Amino acid sequence: MERCIFCEIVKGTSPCYKVFEDDRFMAFLDIFPRVKGQTLVIPKKHYRWVYEVDDFKRYWEAVLKVTKKIQKNMKPDFISYVTYGMDVSHAHVHIMPRHYGERQILPGELALKKEELLRIQHLVNGV
């Protein structure tokens, strides 16, 4: 298997802005977000596609836990989910906090600095 950045994040050999973790799944801020607070939820075990995850229901329950944290602490108007999975060959769900009035289905990439990502991480975590 080729190098997988998400597997490295799970192992702790690559850094991330973690907002959730349990025994099977992990969530962290996307460092190339299209909206502030965009979060990726991944299985700790490597799967290529979301639909290949062996406990699909539990995976989406983890996504819902993270969604509720984002709703509580960031107060978006609604949440969008994207599962296109083309940039990294490891199953992942994008949780995208959205606001009414945003016209683009998939906005362009934001350039957020480390300080802003840390601020958002603390906000999502309720710190």
What is the top-level CATH class?
A: Alpha Beta
What separation lies between the terminal Cα atoms?
A: 37 Å
CATH architecture name: 2-Layer Sandwich
Helix content: 25-40%
Describe the structure.
This protein has a 5-stranded antiparallel β-sheet. It is globular, with a radius of gyration of 14 Å. It has helices spanning 5-11, 56-74, 114-124, and strands at 18-21, 25-29, 39-43, 78-82, 93-98. It has 127 residues and is of the alpha+beta class. The protein has a single domain (5-124), classed as HIT-like (HIT family, subunit A, 2-Layer Sandwich), CATH 3.30.428.10. The relative contact order is 0.22. The protein has 3 helices and 5 strands.
Please supply descriptive tags for the structure shown above.
HIT family, subunit A, alpha+beta
How would you concisely characterize the structure shown here?
This protein is of the alpha+beta class and 127 residues long. The chain has helices at 5-11, 56-74, 114-124; strands spanning 18-21, 25-29, 39-43, 78-82, 93-98. A hairpin with a 3-residue loop joins β1 (18-21) and β2.
Describe the secondary-structure layout:
Elements: H1 5-11, E1 18-21, E2 25-29, E3 39-43, H2 56-74, E4 78-82, E5 93-98, H3 114-124
Antiparallel strand pairs: 1-2, 2-3, 3-5, 4-5
